[in-house]
Amino acid sequence: MSIQVQNIRKQFGSFVALNDVSLDFPTGELVALLGPSGCGKTTLLRIIAGLEQADKGNVILEGTDASATHVRDRQVGFVFQHYALFRHMSVFDNIAFGLRVKPRNERPSEDVIRKKVTELLKLVQLDWLADRFPSQLSGGQRQRIALARALAVEPRVLLLDEPFGALDAKVRKELRRWLRRLHDELHITSIFVTHDQEEALEVADRVVLMNHGSVEQIGTPEEVWNAPKTPFVYSFLGSVNLFHGRAGQGALQVDEHSLTHAEDNIPQGAEVIAFARPHELDIDTDLTQVEGLRARIARIQAFGLTARVELERIDTSGTLHHYEVELTLERLIALQLRTGSEVRITPSHLKVFQTPSQPHTAPYIAAGI
Amino acid sequence: MAGATATLNAAHLASLNQARHYEDSPATRDNPLVKWTILSISLLFFAGFLLLPLATVFVEAFKKGWDVYLAAITEADALAAVRLTLLAAAIAVPLNLVFGVSAAWAIAKFEFRGKQLLITLIDLPFSVSPVVAGLIYVLLFGAQGWLWPYLSEYNIKIVFAVPGIVLATIFVTFPFIARELIPLMQAQGKEEEEAAIVLGASGWQTFWHVTLPNIKWGLLYGVVLCNARAMGEFGAVSVVSGHIRGMTNTLPLQIEILYNEYQFAASFAVASLLAVLALITLILKTYIEWQAARTARDSQQEETP
C-alpha cells in the first residue's frame, strides 16, 4: 500500500519538529528515514501511524485521506525502539494480542490464532520461545517478537522506529540483514527510522535524509551516497573534508591557497563551502607548486586496504583545521610521507556550495570527520 | 502519613546487598561497638514505643477474661460501629480506587496544563489536619453551613449522619492510591499502551489487558493502605459524626467513648479489633512489597539484556 504525506507541519512549543514535509512512499518499498536526532524523523513516523497528530497537512494511505482515522483503524504495524512488549504476557500471548482484541465478529477462533502465531514464530525463527516471557529474551529476540506481533494483524504498512537502536553492534548487523530478507519475502510497504547511515544505506530501497524538520534529499542509497545534493547530506553521509573559501576563476580560494575545481555556476567572489571525500584528495610533497592547500601531516594510519593520512592546517585567523586523505598503500609508499612534514593537499573532485544567507555551517564541521 | 506511601521498587533489595558487602569488607567495616549501639537503640525504641503499646492493647482487652472480651465486641453499639466502619471503608476505598487510577492515568499518560497543580492538590489531605477536614464538611453541610438551606429543603442529612462520615473518610484517604500509582505509571511510560492501540485494542481493552496488569501490585498496595486509613480515621470523622451511639460511631470513636466512660476492658477489646486489622494490613503490605519487588526485578533484567 502506498503512503503519502502532504505538507505535514508539527510544532512542539516553539520547536518546529516538521516543517512542511511532503513525501511519497511507493507500494512495497522499504524506505529509511535517516537523520540526526531531533530532525523530526520519529515524529513523522508517529504521525503516519496516528500516534501523533500533525498541526497541518494530510496523511494519505492508499489514496484515501487517513488524517482523521483512529490509530486502531489505520491497520499499520508499529515496531518500537524499546520493543514495548507486554511484559506480563508470554511471547505467544504477545503475538496473539492483536488478533484477540478484534471485535467478536472479526475475531478468528483460538485454533486459527494458534496456527497464525505459530506461523509467525517460524517466520521470525523463534518458534521455540512461545512460552517464554519478554524478560527472558535477549534484545534481538525481543525485537523479532515485536515484529511478529506487529505482523500478526496483517498491517498494510510496517513502521519501525529505530528498531535496532537499543541493540549491540553485532546483533544489529545481523538483524538488519534479516529485516531485508524478511521484506523481500513479504513485500509490505515499510518505513524505518534510523540515525545510523550504515543501517539505512545497507537495508533500504530508498533513503530519505532529513534535517531540522525538512527533507534534504530522497534517493536510492547509491544516489544519496554518490551525489549528495545539499551540504547537509554531504557532511552527514560518510566522512568528508570541508573547505571554507571564496569562489574564483576555476578555483576555490582558501586563504592564500587555491584549489582547482570544475564547477563554475557560482558567481565569482561568493562565499562558498566545498566538500571532498577523503579518497577525492591527494597529497603532493612538491612545495614549489602553488596549487593546493598546504597542511602538516599529523598522523598516518597505514592498516587495511588503504592508508589514511590526517593533516592539520592553521589558517590566517589562527583556527585549526583537520583534513583526512585516503591513499592507496602504493601511493603512500611512493610519497614517503612522514609525520610532521609539510605537504600540499590537491583535490581531484570538489563539491562546492554557495554559503547560505543564514550560515549554519558549524554542525557540518561537527558532523564531518 | 505521607511517609507510608513508600514507592515500590527493587532498589532497596540492591542496597541491602550493598550493605552486606560493605560490612563484610575489612576495609570498610566499622567498629562492632558502633553497629551494636545503633542496633540496640533502634530495637529499644521499637520495643518501648511500638511493641509494648500493641501488647498492652491485647493484655488489657483480655484482662477480665474471654467472656468480657466477647461481650464487649458483640455488644450492639460495638457491632453497629463495626458495621459503620466497614460501610465507610466499602464506599471510600472503591471511590478512591477509581479516582486514584484515573488521576494517575491522566498525570502519567497525558500532557495538560495544571498537571503540577493537580499533583500538589492530591496531597492536600496529607497536609491538612483531619480535624480541619471535618470542619470543612460541617461548614459546608452543617446547620449553619452554606448548603444547609438546600439540604434541609429536601430533608437530606449529611453532617452528624452516615454520609458525612463517608465524605470525611473519602477526604482523608483520597491521596493513597493516586500517590502510589503516579510514580509507577510515570516510570512505565506509555509505549505498551501505544503498542496495544496500534494493534487495534480499544481503550478499555488496553486498560484491562495492558495497563492494569502492569500496575496491579502498586494498586493493591495503595488499596491496603487506603483501607487501613479509612477504618482507623479518627479526627475528621469525629468532627462530623456527632457521636450518636449505635448510629454514627465508627470503631475509633466507639473506643474513645468506652474509654471516657471508664469501660477499659471493653474499650481495649474494641481497640484490639483495630490492632488486628493493622497486623493484617502489615502482612498484606509485606506480601505485596515482596511480589512487587519480584516483578520489578524481572523488568530490571529486561532493561539490561
Keywords:
heterodimer, A: 369 residues, alpha+beta, 6-stranded mixed sheet, 5-stranded antiparallel sheet, 10 helices, disordered C terminus, B: 305 residues, mainly alpha, 78% helix, flat, disordered N terminus
Compact description:
The complex is a heterodimer of chains A (about 375) and B (about 300). By secondary structure, chain A is α+β, with helices and mostly antiparallel strands.
What does this structure look like?
The complex is a heterodimer of chains A (369) and B (305). Chain A is of the alpha+beta class and 369 residues long. Helices cover 26% and strands 33% of the residues of chain A. In chain A, the strands form four sheets. Chain A has a six-stranded mixed sheet with strand order 6-7-8-3-9-10, with helices on both faces. In chain A, a hairpin with a 3-residue loop joins strand 11 and strand 12. In chain A, helix 2 (91-100) crosses helix 3 (110-123), helix 2 runs parallel beside helix 4 and helix 3 (110-123) packs across helix 4 (139-152). Chain A is elongated and about 85 Å long. In chain B, helix 9 (162-173) packs across helix 12, helix 9 packs antiparallel against helix 13 and helix 14 (251-260) packs antiparallel against helix 15. Chain B contains 15 helices and no strands. In chain B, 34% of the residues are buried. The model of chain B is unreliable at 1-10 (pLDDT under 50). Chain B is mainly alpha-helical and 305 residues long.
H/E series of chain A, N to C? Answer: EEEHEEEHHHEHEHEEHHEEEEEEEEHEEH
- Shape descriptor of chain A reads elongated
Largest sheet of chain A: 6 strands, mixed
Work out the radius of gyration of chain A: 25 Å
Question: In terms of per-residue confidence, which ranges of chain A show pLDDT below 50 for 5 or more consecutive residues?
Answer: 359-369
Topology:
The complex is a heterodimer of chains A (369) and B (305).
Chain A: E1 3-12, E2 15-25, E3 30-34, H1 41-49, E4 56-61, E5 64-65, E6 76-79, H2 91-100, H3 110-123, H4 139-152, E7 157-161, H5 169-186, E8 189-194, H6 197-203, E9 206-211, E10 214-219, H7 221-226, H8 231-236, E11 241-247, E12 251-254, E13 257-260, E14 271-276, E15 281-284, E16 293-301, E17 306-314, E18 320-328, H9 329-335, E19 342-347, E20 351-354, H10 362-367
Parallel strand pairs in A: 3-8, 3-9, 6-7, 7-8
Antiparallel strand pairs in A: 1-2, 1-4, 4-5, 9-10, 11-12, 11-14, 12-13, 14-20, 15-19, 16-17, 16-19, 17-18
Helix pairs in contact in A: 2-3, 2-4, 3-4
Chain B: H1 11-24, H2 32-61, H3 65-74, H4 76-109, H5 115-122, H6 124-127, H7 130-141, H8 148-153, H9 162-173, H10 175-188, H11 191-198, H12 203-232, H13 235-241, H14 251-260, H15 264-303
Helix pairs in contact in B: 2-15, 3-15, 4-9, 4-10, 4-12, 7-9, 7-13, 9-12, 9-13, 10-12, 11-12, 12-15, 14-15
